[in-house]
Amino acid sequence: MADVKIQIYGIRTVEDARMVIDMGGHHIGVSYGRIKRTPGQLTLEKAKEIFQGVQPEAVKIGLTIAEDIDEITENLKEVLPDVLHLSGNIEGISPDEVMELKRRFPGLKIMQAIPVLQNVPIEEQKALEYIKQYEAVSDFFLIDTKADTANDIGATGLTHDRSIDRAIIESTSVPCIIAGGLDASNVAEAIHETHPYGVDSFSLTNFDQVEEGKGCKDPEKVKAFIEASLNA
């Protein structure tokens, strides 16, 4: 059995949040904010409902792609997660600004997304540079695939070279969660190859068709992903 934390993103209902924890997941990820920035982003009110309704043992992750720490602060005043996941342009919020957020909200943990590009050797990427810049202010790193055309990091369903994950994990003492195109068919291999703190799934544990206003997590895909992760 793998000693790995399982993070499921794209939670849009209390029912989905509770299902993930009942099935053995550990972290539930919710994207929310007052200003609508992504298609699946929830209102502050809906995020609060999910965080209050999920089992107490769940680690509640709140994602933002905002780059203005005052905007982020106003959201956190309304809905405070256990961990704030910064997933916008990494250069849009400096390490000093991350530290300021932690000063404003004592006890808040930070998960900094680290962008990895597809089909680009590690020598030509900035991932290891970002690790050095942000490790003093980060409680977790989320290593995810960044699309060339996107400003934010992740939620693409795209994979990347897992040897880059391994190099990042071996370079830092900050716990690293790997993401990017993970599902039940490849997560065990990724765990064996990289030895991460945790694994993350969004796109590939969703229903093929998602209805507006309803949950998007497919119970069969979620269950398969969690079992494959735990049995790796």
Summarize the structure.
The protein has 232 residues and is of the alpha/beta class. The protein has helices spanning 14-22, 44-53, 69-78, 95-104, 127-134, 162-171, 187-194, 219-230, and strands spanning 5-8, 27-31, 59-64, 83-86, 109-117, 140-146, 176-178, 198-201. The mean pLDDT is 92.
Describe this structure in words.
By secondary structure, the protein is α/β, with parallel strands linked by helices. It has a single domain (5-230), classed as TIM Barrel, CATH 3.20.20.70. The chain has 8 helices and 8 strands. The chain has helices spanning 14-22, 44-53, 69-78, 95-104, 127-134, 162-171, 187-194, 219-230, and strands spanning 5-8, 27-31, 59-64, 83-86, 109-117, 140-146, 176-178, 198-201. An 8-stranded parallel beta barrel has the order 1-2-3-4-5-6-7-8, surrounded by 5 helices. The relative contact order is 0.17.
Which short descriptors sum up this protein?
single chain; alpha/beta; TIM Barrel; eight-stranded parallel barrel
Topology:
Layout: E1 5-8, H1 14-22, E2 27-31, H2 44-53, E3 59-64, H3 69-78, E4 83-86, H4 95-104, E5 109-117, H5 127-134, E6 140-146, H6 162-171, E7 176-178, H7 187-194, E8 198-201, H8 219-230
